[in-house]
Write a structure and sequence with these properties.
There is one protein chain. With 481 residues, this protein is mostly helical. The protein is built from 20 helices and no strands. α7 (132-142) packs antiparallel against α10 and α7 packs antiparallel against α19. The protein is globular and about 55 Å long. The termini are far apart.
Length: 481
């Protein structure tokens, strides 16, 4: 009987993964209201911890290495998921948002992000003992705000999101949707410097290849694609060519088309995707048609949470200790770097530039926006892109990190440092809502506290909440006014 049963049962690592992942997602779904609005936790840190616990360094049940997956799988999975998320940002923003709030978003993208890049590079260079070019590469992977983590906290429907003014939620969403793409100039600046070519050649290649081709053309292609997709879908709906299920599927398929066009032409995938989403939903028509479906939230739960479980399972724990090739990498130095990055990567710049950012109206708001710059799956894609360029000189990485290579030291430094900071940011920023809510509850007088712990629903103190309920944007995507 035992031998017969053993022939029927197939407990492979992949099959265990299906089982554990589905149980995690079902369990979260059952208690999602309690977890989000009572515990004030989001999916990413819980998914990450699930991957760590069941991963190869703990219970060894989810082991991606046993599936013979290569680095290209991680790269492409992160590309698709982040692109879907930034496309979603473009669709869900208020109609014609960038025409009214370009200055606020621009300040967050250019001076704040440049500050983040240079300050983080300084910390990496000083603490981890890398070369300056490698420090710039690492800091470029950590400069953008992750749209997946941002959406997990800022998406409508949670108690906490209703306590933050809409103008701040929209600005942070717009920033997170665009700065994954605008991180490419920073990344390629570091890569070109590491290549050792002349200054003139670096500037020429950076401007023509990165700024003009990848970024400028990428956003233009995305906007044109989204605009004409909107017009085509309107015609199809008006003439009853398309059924309701295909109407919804159009959203995902257009996002995938933007990724396909961007990656095939060598453009900035993320800028193509956010441009397509923005052009597609510029007038708010599509969002108005689909606002009751909660499609972005469904995608968040299924795809983003799954990717964070995967990330938790591939975290390179053995690379967080000193090795012959990376003697300067130690758990203490990585922890110190993480703390400095979380404290000084954005907060000083946002506080200093607060008078120049119209959507930030108080210093408490500036502190919140400065802190709320999570790093996650966007950084995972960028670090694989960086490794690929260091390994092959192209955007396609080797199947696995090489054992012998002229850039071996840089390759071995980039991967563990970025992964450690991404892991720490996912946990810290994923738990920030709980800390803010609990802190606000405890600081109130007893008679002013909500009956349940951290269950207040008034706007956060020190922020300007026009219109009640934290609303300040009169015309969101899908609204008629």
């Amino acid at each position: 009987m035992g031998s017969w049963l053993s022939k029927q049962v197939e407990p492979t690592s992949a099959h265990y993964t299906y089982l554990i992942l589905s149980i995690f997602l079902l369990s979260y779904s059952f208690f999602s209201e309690f977890i989000r609005n009572r515990l004030h936790l989001s999916e990413p840190p819980l998914a990450l911890l699930t991957g760590v616990i069941f991963g190869p360094n703990a219970l060894n049940i989810i082991n991606p290495a046993s599936w013979h997956w290569q680095d290209t799988v991680t790269q492409e999975a992160a590309r698709i998921i982040v692109s879907l998320q930034v496309f979603s940002v473009g669709v869900e923003l208020p109609k014609a948002y960038f025409s009214r709030h370009w200055k606020s978003v621009g300040m967050m993208l250019v001076p704040v992000m440049t500050f983040s890049w240079l300050v983080t590079a300084g910390f990496v260079y000083g603490i981890m003992g890398t070369t300056w070019s490698v420090a710039l590469i690492i800091s470029a992977c950590l400069a953008p705000t992750d749209p997946v983590l941002a959406a997990a906290v800022l998406q409508p429907g949670t108690r906490f999101s209703s306590r933050v003014p809409r103008r701040l939620r929209h600005m942070l969403s717009a920033e997170s949707g665009t700065n994954d793409g605008t991180s490419f100039p920073f990344l390629y600046a570091g890569l070109l410097m590491h290549g050792g070519t002349s200054t003139g050649a670096i500037i020429r290649d950076w401007f023509t290849g990165t700024i003009l081709w990848q970024c400028t053309l990428g956003i233009l292609v995305g906007l044109i694609l989204g605009h004409y997709a909107n017009r085509s879908l309107r015609i199809a709906e008006r003439r009853d060519w398309i059924d309701p299920s295909s109407f919804l599927a159009f959203y995902i398929l257009l996002a995938l088309l933007s990724v396909g066009i961007g990656s095939t032409l060598g453009l900035d995938d993320f800028l193509v995707a956010v441009g397509a989403g923005t052009g597609f939903a510029w007038d708010g028509w599509f969002a108005n048609k689909t606002k009751a479906t909660h499609l972005p939230q469904i995608l968040d739960l299924l795809l983003n949470s799954s990717m964070f479980v995967y990330f938790g399972a591939i975290i390179p724990w053995k690379n967080f200790v000193p090795r012959d090739i990376t003697p300067m990498i130690t758990p203490g130095k990585l922890t110190g770097l993480l703390v400095l990055v979380l404290l000084f990567r954005r907060i000083p710049a946002v506080l200093a530039l607060k008078p120049l950012i119209p959507d930030i109206r108080t210093y408490r708001e500036a502190l919140f926006c400065g802190h709320f710059g999570p790093m996650g799956l966007g950084g995972l894609f960028l670090v694989i892109e960086a490794r690929a360029r260091l390994e092959t000189g192209e955007s396609i990485p080797m199947p696995h990190p090489p054992k012998h290579h002229p850039n071996l030291e840089a390759i071995e430094q980039v991967w563990p440092i970025v992964c450690f900071v991404l892991m720490g940011s996912t946990i810290v920023h994923g738990c920030s809502v709980a800390a803010i809510s609990l802190g606000g509850h405890m600081m109130r007088n007893k008679e002013e506290r909500a009956p349940l712990l951290a269950a207040e629903d008034e706007g956060l103190e020190g922020m300007i909440h026009e219109g009640g309920g934290g609303e300040s944007e009169p015309s969101v995507s899908g609204d008629e006014d």
